Prior knowledge:
This protein is of the alpha/beta class. Helices cover 31% and strands 20% of the residues.
Amino acid sequence: MRNGFRIFTLGIVCTASFIYGCSLGGNPRSASDHLPKNYEKTLDIVRVYYGTDRTPTGERSPNNYYGSEPTALQYGICEVSIPSTHDYGEIERPSIWKLEFSENPERHVMLQSVEALLEDEFLKDLQDEVKYSESEEAFVFVHGYNVSFAHAARRTAQMAHDLKFQGPPIMFSWPSQGKLPGYVADMTSADFAKDHVLEFVEKIARDSGAKKVHLIAHSMGNRIVTDVLKNLSEQSLYRDVPKFNQVILAAPDIDARTFKYEIAPKITQADRVTIYASSNDKALKASQLVHQGRRLGQGGVELTVFPEQKFIDMIDASQVDFGLFELGHASYADGLLVDVQRTLAGAPVVSRGLTAHESQFAWLVPGPLRPVEDLPTGIQMASLETLSPDTVVTKETTKPSPVNGWSWWKIFWPF
């Protein structure tokens, strides 16, 4: 009897999994079929401009429009819907555990449409968007490892929505496999994309009409963006190249020593670089084992500091959920996201409510942050370099989380 019940239960789960998988891929409904009546009242539609060197699959489904094979640089616009029930900092997706077997625009963040454009059409549309925006700024997001085109589009739209960014959100999606075991293949694809990303972001900076262009990279995407910054800085010696405003490197999966001694000293084409690190990022811990070296995005006792590069701010976000750039639930709303918002607004690190790190050359996101205007009058955190001898600064330390052998296997074996 018990065996029969177990088989019956397993059958239900397998059938539900099959239905769930089919509902998100294969041959889903068109974007117009997904949208409810009077959707303008219940959904926020975010237009995301994109560059990619992924090969189109030939499928009509927005979720499967691009695959993981590399090709030439392409341009386009996609639309992502965000429900009115959206939680700050989260990308709501169907969950089999909630008996949700298909996307619902009133409950989930959805990629509604993908439109490939010629370069001239893309730039003309982007110029109009920048011209009529409040800030006349733009950001370009470069995703990391294990990310599909659809995932990247949803993340870019969610970031723009939650950050209340008053300008066009732009992403570059390189041909990641979008699979957990695809790490090595993704490294190859990321290296392949470097020239395309350089060409793309230079076009955005030159031809979009934006007064400020910010670059945001996550995980393996930093491998691309830091190489682009290095190459542009070297090329600035013999040709005119654009300069970017805020550059955010989140959980960078690159060798710490290489960046500190070979890349950071050469960066000239960024007004400010902010690095967010965490001691709780499992992917970076696994990468450290693979590469046998410390990664730039590791925080805590592994934190890398830059006392000689005054334009680089190192932020240890180990005390908050690092979900901003992860695909899945994130409860960081009052911590990391608030600081990213302030960074893009140009607020100096000394005025963002951060705590001085014990290294004296870095900062801690101390958990929930209040808006700067809510802080008591006259009380703000300050850089150790600007403090008077009589000023006392609270220093906090972060303890590395214990990791056992099974934790490493769980990174690669998700079952």
